[in-house]
Specification:
Layout lengths: L8 E4 L11 E5 L3 E6 L5 E6 L3 E7 L2 H5 L2 E8 L7 E7 L1 H19 L18
Antiparallel strand pairs: 1-2, 2-3, 3-4, 5-6, 6-7
Amino acid sequence: MMEEMTYVWRDRKRNFLGLPWTFTKYALTQDRLFITTGLLRTEEDEVRLYRILDITKSKTLWQKIFGMGTIKVSSADKSLGNFELKNVKGVDEVKETLSRLVEECRDKKRVTNREFMGDDLDGDGQG
C-alpha cells in the first residue's frame, strides 16, 4: 500500500494572464519537488530537495502586474539539472518555503558540498 503524500504547496503554472490554464503542475513535499507536464502523455520529474544547490527568483513587469514570478533552480540532479518554475503565483512565499525546506533536508541528511562533487553520500548510486 502506497503512503499518501502530504503536500506543502501545490499549484499550476499560470498563463501570461495569471490564470492556471496550463498542463504543468508543481508540487512540493517536505523532501521532494515534483513537476508534472502534459495532457495526453504526462511526464513527472522529481528532485530531492537536498540536491538543490541554488534558488533564484525573478519577476518580469508582466509577472509583477499579475502577482507572479519565476523560480530558477540549480540542482545536482542528473536527470533534471537546472530548471525553472515559471509563472508561479505568490512567488515570494513559495521561494522562501522551498529555500527553508532545502536547508532542512540538507541538515537532516548532513549533505555537504562533497555530495555535489561526485561522492555518493546517500548510497543510492547516483553520485
